[in-house]
Amino acid sequence: MNKFQVLTLSGALALGLMGSGASFAQEQEARDHARAAAVAAAKAEGKAESVTLEEPTRSYFDWGAILNPDGRVMSVRSDSVAQEMGIEVGDHILKIDDQVLAEQSLQDLVSYLETLEHDHSFTVTVQRNGQKKTLSGRVKATVIPGWRLEVDVAQTVIDKADEASCGRVSVFVTPPQARDLYPAYFVRIDDDNVLTRRPIVKLSPGKHTVEIHELIDDPWVRRSRSINHPKSIEIDVEADTTYYLAARFVRDKRLSTVNEEYWEPVVWREVEQECESN
């Protein structure tokens, strides 16, 4: 996958977040696109410790008419600016504002349209049934917000162990959704904030309180982001053991979103794995 494909994937993140009232499903879709872009960026950059992709804010204007090379209108999209102006199939475009088609290529004329800013007024002169008509319109541009995606390739582990021996807690592995288990991310461990981009944490043997936040994307779940809080689970960490955490979807309580009874943090897998503290 090349960088152009990565940018295309990442662009979906900006589109997914355009509306301030974006639903959780849209946010989750944006996360999925961002995750795919992050994986692609990491592969593209090889051994780089971090990768940054970004694009500035931009806009484009699609006025809704398709023209053949000589400027004749082939089709007009419903509810488009072209339709609102009164452009009809069969019209022959003569000029847009003071840009005369006979003096330039159709591509140059279309490029001029695309550079017009939002809410800018413009005119189109057409020939229809042997008569010239001048039609007026106003630009309705689509704005794509700027975005920045930082991918931390090298550092996936936080070492919070105080002793030579240690165990791990992890949200790195995607749990099986067939068992109603969904991804999560760390929020806090033993009253210490954790960077959410670190999916593995080394801990000293003993009891630890781990807070995670759910990333359940089941269509049955309808919750407000304002009341969506992390939950804690206590784990008695043993040396050389990795504990994989997930958010378990409690399907029979899927409508209990106010009290957040629809999910609970769980350890879904334990694996014996050598662990050495730095």
Automatic annotation (TrEMBL):
InterPro entries: PDZ, PDZ_sf. SMART domains: PDZ. Residues 50-128 form the PDZ domain. Residues 1-25 form the signal peptide. PROSITE patterns: PDZ. Keywords: Signal. SUPFAM superfamilies: PDZ domain-like. This is PDZ domain-containing protein.
